[in-house]
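Journal club side-thread
Mid-discussion, someone asked how the predicted structure for our own chain would compare to the paper's figures. Pasting it here so we can look after the session.
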Amino acid sequence: MKTRFLQKTLLGAALAACAVSSFAQGTVGNWPDKPVKWIVPFPPGGAMDAIARTLGEVAGRKLGQPFVIENKAGAGGNIGADAVAKSPADGYTLMITSIGMATNGALYNKLSYDPIKDFAPVSLLAVVPNILVAGPKQSDVKSVKDLIAKAKQNPDKLTYASAGNGTSIHLAGASFTSLTGVKMLHVPYRGSGPAVTDLLGGQVDFMFDSITSARPHIEAGKLRAIAITTKTRSPSLPDVPTVAEAGVPGYEVSPWFATFMPAGTPAPIVEKLGKTLNEAMNDPEVKKRLSVIGAEPIGSTPQALAAHLKTETERWTQLIKESNIKVD
């Protein structure tokens, strides 16, 4: 009797597993059969929003279903991230995010989600460099070496603006002062817009601004480009050296954008979406549209994004703790 009962139990389990597998395969095979929600955890108009809308449009055409962009801003991206973490893992919700995915765990005392455990990495999307720019009252600073020399002669006198504590603009400045040993005052603003306004007005001296917002002012001659924060020069401003080649070896801050889905999303869906987004990033029209905001498409596998997130989390957590950086 025990043997017969065991056989029935095993047979039932096997049939159930087959049923689940068949259902999952059918779901993946039909995916997507309805619109896909793409959450942007910041307001419209920024680089993140532009990347999502550009790639979403192309991915929607390729997959036969629209990608609906939903801006869910607030708390440094945490509101949008929390919404995605708590969404069904059915393949119909994804999120674009940035370096905050690697930094918010150290910046906030308590998060309502786990940046590693609650998400399925899909693909890296693009890098949008930051650029060290000098305001109009710093006409004597034309290079990184000029800035370092002046800052050492005037400790805690020179200022650099940011879009807020813990943003990539702030971290770019904190990394610069850490590697060079200079002392500069950080002035946080609530967004890049008001920071740039004060930089143009001379209320602050420097900024490691996103190339997206800084380039128009550079081209208009209102701000001076000193150096790019990424490892290599930007195709958008090829004559501007990197911070590393301009005199700070080992310096690199590459603000990246990536996409994630809720943890538990079927791997075939994640892989299908990642492949579609990578194909979209190789589209000449997409590259052209992204170049307008200074974005450099990169793409990756889900595994590569997971490894990248781990490395970035370790790196920025260390700097945040060493520099005692706290959110606004």
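Post-session note: Confidence is low (pLDDT under 50) at residues 13-26.
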